Automatic annotation (TrEMBL):
This is Cytochrome c oxidase subunit 2. It catalyses: 4 Fe(II)-[cytochrome c] + O2 + 8 H(+)(in) = 4 Fe(III)-[cytochrome c] + 2 H2O + 4 H(+)(out). Belongs to the cytochrome c oxidase subunit 2 family. It is a multi-pass membrane protein. It comes from Elysia cornigera. One of its GO terms (cellular component) is mitochondrial inner membrane. It is found in: Mitochondrion inner membrane. The chain crosses the membrane at residues 20-43, 64-87. Its main location: mitochondrion. The keyword Lyase does not apply. The gene is COX2.
């Protein structure tokens, strides 16, 4: 990937993450406009511009700079509230993936007719194959079908952790004795990487999350071989 390509956020792998990127661009347009306007005024004021009595004692101007920020906040709040609603939406259908955090690895379970469960450890740097990502590859990937709703349930067996999968727009705390859930819809096949994003001890940096999205047909065969 080129240098300029790395300045942007990750390509979205789910509709929710796509909406997050759109909101990010929407907010950036607003922020750049505010920064440009305030910078312009600052430069003009530094050269003793805009200091006449018509500017300093203008009641209409005070009204404008009260109303315009209010409209700006509404312009920012409406898509934000919509996005919050989408993030909170839960689906009771589809696949369930339960992830349990440990110091310092993840355990996954896919409760079907025959439950599939396994542990997922980071692959040491000395065992990586050419092209593998350092600190991100695991020995057992969480395999899911794409184009299907997936409910991710997470908890912890010891301390606070956080299940974060940026390409899916997924991030939630793993709390001992509590189940947290979020919905995920993988749009296309591929391998998606994440990490624990809560400082959880000495090896916090060595808790990668890898989700591999495959077709439903291949997923059924995967379940049959895993059982």
């Amino acid at each position: 990937m080129s240098f300029w390509g790395q300045l942007n956020l990750m390509d979205p792998g789910s509709p929710v993450q796509g909406e997050m990127l759109l909101f990010h661009d929407h907010a950036m347009v607003l922020l750049i406009g505010i920064f440009t306007f305030v910078g312009f005024l600052g430069v003009k004021l530094s050269f003793n511009k805009f200091t006449s009595r018509n500017i300093l004692e203008a009641q209409q101007l005070e009204t404008i700079w009260t109303i315009v920020p209010a409209l700006t906040l509404i312009w920012l709040a409406l898509p934000s509230l919509r996005l919050l609603y989408l993030l909170d939406e839960q689906s009771s259908s589809g696949i369930i993936l339960k992830s349990t955090a440990h110091q310092w690895y993840w355990s996954y379970e896919i409760p079907m007719s025959e439950s599939v469960s396994f542990d997922s450890y980071m692959i040491p740097e000395s065992d990586l194959n050419p092209g593998d990502y350092r600190l991100l590859e695991v020995d057992n990937r969480a395999t899911l079908p794409y184009q299907m709703e997936t409910m991710v349930i997470t908890t912890s067996a010891d301390v606070l952790h956080s299940f974060a999968l940026p390409s899916m727009g997924l991030k939630m705390d793993a709390v001992p004795g509590r189940l947290n859930t979020m919905s995920m819809f993988v749009e296309k096949p591929g391998v998606y990487y994440g990490q624990c994003s809560e400082i959880c001890g000495a090896n916090h940096s060595f808790m990668p999350i890898v989700v591999e999205a495959i077709s439903l047909f291949d997923f059924i065969k995967y379940l049959e071989t895993a059982e």
